[in-house]
Design brief:
121 residues; Gyrase A, domain 2; five-stranded antiparallel β-sheet; globular; 4-alpha-hydroxytetrahydrobiopterin dehydratase activity; PCD_sf
């Protein structure tokens, strides 16, 4: 079983993750990041690479994908909050998509390219 991050571990790890676009999830001990890729193929490729990293760590994200958008939430279910596994997986995911756009405002609706194309924008 994984252990929750201590306050010192949170202070050491979370600011750098925040700089990369990870943000706290309201009402949960979890972090979330939203990537926007150029197209579905790039998003799917990221998800495939991310799945391999998750399997290596035996730590699996909560995620969704709509066309070019991948929305990931990390938390460790067996300790009901953030653990070192989440920090490690977040760093690995960041390394897989250095050129992707990151939606930093999680309060804004997530709009994928398919909706933009449908509106003719």
């Amino acid at each position: 079983m994984a252990d929750l991050l201590s306050e010192a571990e949170r202070d050491a790890a979370l600011p750098a993750l925040g700089d990369n676009g990870w943000a706290a999830v309201p009402d949960r001990d979890a972090i979330r990041k939203i990537w926007k890729f150029k197209n579905f193929s790039e998003a799917w490729g990221f998800m495939n690479r991310a799945a391999l990293q998750a399997e290596k760590l035996n730590h699996h994200p909560e995620w969704s994908n709509v066309y070019n958008v991948v929305d990931v939430t990390l938390t460790t279910h067996d300790c009901d909050g953030l653990s070192a596994l989440d920090v490690t997986l977040a760093k690995r995911l960041d390394a897989l998509a250095p050129g992707a756009e990151v939606q930093r405002d999680h309060g804004e609706p997530v709009v994928c390219l398919c909706k933009i194309h449908a509106k003719g924008a």
